[in-house]
Structure formats: C-alpha cells, structure tokens
Amino acid sequence: MEAVILFPAIDLKDGQCVRLEQGDMARATVFNFDPAEQARAFASQGFEYLHVVDLDGAFAGRPVNADAVERMLKNVAMPVQLGGGIRDLKTVEAWLKKGITRVIIGTAAVRDPVLVKEAAKAFPGRVAVGLDARDGKVAVEGWAETSEVTALDIARRFEDAGIAAIIFTDIARDGLLKGLNLDATIALADSISIPVIASGGFASIADVKALLAPRAKKLAGAIAGRALYDGRLDPAEALALIRAARAAA
To answer: What is the CB neighbour count within 10 angstroms for residue 194?
Structure first.
C-alpha cells in the first residue's frame, strides 16, 4: 500500500469554496467563503495533497479563480493539483511556475491530446488527465457536453506519454455521497499502466476501507469533498487508516 493519497477537494465558484451535485452549477452549496482558510484547515487536519478545481474556469476554458488559487498557494505548504480551464501549454506553464505541483487537463485531453503529450514531455510528472464519465462516456466543457469516447479509450492514448495520474470521476455520483464507483475505477486502473485516482461520491470511512482493500491495490488514491465538509468523514480516522496500511505494507 505504497502511495495511496486521500485528496481533500476545494472546488471554486465565484471565488468561494463550493460543492456541486453531479457537476450542476445550479446545484452549488457554498461551504466556505474563504478558500485559503479552507486550505489551511485541511492542512491542519493532516492531509498531504490538495485537489483544487476552478469550476468557472472549466466552463470558460481559461482560469477564472486565479486569485483564490494563488491565495491558497501562499497559505499552505502542501502540494496542490489544479484542474479547470487548462487548455494550452502557456496556462500549464504559468500555473506550474506559480507553485502548482500538478496540473489536471480534462477537456483538452479529449479535444487536443497532442497538448497533453507536449505538456507531459515538457513537465515530467507534473501533468495529470481528468476523465469525467457520464454513463461510461467522457464529459467535457465543465461536464456540459458528453463526448462519444470512453475513459479507457482516452486513457490508452496517453499510455506512453509520461502522465503522472488519471483522475477518474463518476459524474452520476459526484456530490451525492453515494460511495465511490470502485468497480469502474479499478477496471480502468487494471487496463492501463498510468496511476488512477478515484473521484465522485466519496461518502464515508467505508470508502477509505474499500480503497485500502487488496482489489484496489492499483489505485493511487481518492478525492473526498462533500463528505469532509458535512462531517460524514472524520479526517483523523481516515488518515490513521491510510497511515496504518502504509506501515503494514
């Protein structure tokens, strides 16, 4: 159980920390008006890697909540992975220079795979691909549109590109606390060599235990959002389980 990471999520809308239901911007709940404060809270709880998404940027196709992201970078020392509106090499480079540890390319991974390969070559280990699936097909443009390709189809394009990770989100579960779709996520991880991170629906300590089960051994981690914000997942308990699993490995 070498590198399983539980990523706390901060999703940004209008400069605030929110959670959506199934990616619907009209179904947003504000959990913190100050994302930097939220980032500090996650750091103090012992999390070791922060997952941030610029939701407005995902729809606009360019960074929108840059000020909020930069404030977070100034307030926490832990690494941050960032997605949302990253559609060209210039934006990738700009975020990495500002201190983002890893950028996540989503829509462009479907529409411009050459960009992903160029970015991964230019910045080894610092580019991830976000694959967000609805009924097995990958959604793009902030989940507003659904493509005709599957997550596995796209993941295979990048097998030898040096991608740091693939973040696989089940849109149908996202923000609804239904539990991770580990069956689909593990099936993806078993079909490729790129590390896979599970996302969408994280609900309770049961998801942490499932993530640490032998059948999930290829997964690199999972992203937790609403379950942390509404208290259904105790950070101390979750992180203690993960530390214990690492120690026993």
So the answer is: 21
Q: 119 and 95 in contact (C-beta within 8 Å)?
A: no
pLDDT at position 1 is: 40
11 part of the active site: yes
Catalytic residue among 11, 54, 56, 170, which?
11
Q: Express each pLDDT in 63-95 by its tens digit.
A: 999 999 999 999 999 999 999 999 999 999 999
Catalytic residue among 54, 56, 132, 170: 132
> What secondary structure letter does DSSP report for 136?
T
| Integer-rounded Cα radius of gyration of the chain | 16
14's tokens:
């209008």
Q: CA-to-CA distance for 38 and 35, rounded, in angstroms?
A: 5
Q: For residues 217 and 240, what is the distance between their CA atoms, to the nearest angstrom? A: 18
> 3-state DSSP call for residue 37?
helix
Q: At 239, is the secondary structure helix, strand, or coil?
A: helix
Instruction: Give SS3 for 115.
Output: helix
Residue type, 56: D
Q: What is the mean pLDDT of residues 205-219?
A: 95
Q: Vertex 129, ends 121 and 100: CA angle to 5°?
A: 75
DSSP assignment of 44-107 equals: HTT---EEEEEHHHHHHTS-S-HHHHHHHHHH--S-EEEESS--SHHHHHHHHHHT-SEEEE-H
